[in-house]
Amino acid sequence: MRIAVGTDHRGFAIREKIIESLRQRGHEVLDFGTFSPEAVDYPDVAVEVAGRVSRGEVDRGVLVCGTGLGMCIAANKFPGVRATPCHDDLTVELSRRHNDSNVLCLSADLLGERLIDRMIEVWLNTPFDGGRHARRVEKIADLERRVEEEKQAT
Ligand code: RB5
């Protein structure tokens, strides 16, 4: 897969390990930093990764900040992005099976390196269940279209 990765300063220490492990698994990685421990604003990184997922330039995105939450809020502003904040094996598995997650948002402060590695593995290898979940995901896409139409009308 083609995967965009980005972190803020809180995720800086884990970023290279994530990228290395994705490359070792045969994925193509686009690296959007951050490239130093200096503080950056997480929306500036989220826009690079989620924008590319939204435009179909990459298959998936991985975002890391202190909690994973700010990145997730920012990423979900983009049409077609289904960013999920995951904390363990179960949330990461269900984010794929039920929500067809295409951006994984992780907490650098709360999760250890081994857990992050395992979660990414599960997230990449778990397919979407489809069926009733496809109907629900399609309703989210409808919501995005409706909001856009309302904006155009005003
Ligand atoms: C940065 O201090 C912190 O707010 C950020 O990494 C993230 O946790 C935001 O949600």
Can you describe this structure?
- A five-stranded parallel β-sheet has the order 2-1-3-5-4, sandwiched between helices.
- The longest helix is centred in the C-terminal third of the chain and has 22 residues, at 132-153.
- The mean pLDDT is 97.
- The chain has a single domain, classed as 3-Layer(aba) Sandwich (Ribose 5-phosphate Isomerase B, Chain: A).
- The radius of gyration is 15 Å and the shape is globular.
- The protein has helices at 12-24, 42-54, 69-75, 89-97, 113-125, 132-153; strands spanning 2-7, 28-31, 60-65, 83-85, 103-107.
- The protein has 154 residues and is an alpha/beta fold.
- It contains six helices and five strands.
- Helix content is 50%, strand content 16%.
- 35% of the residues are buried.
- The chain starts with a strand and ends with a helix.
- Helix 4 (89-97) links the parallel strand 4 (83-85) and strand 5.
- D-ribose binds next to helix 3.
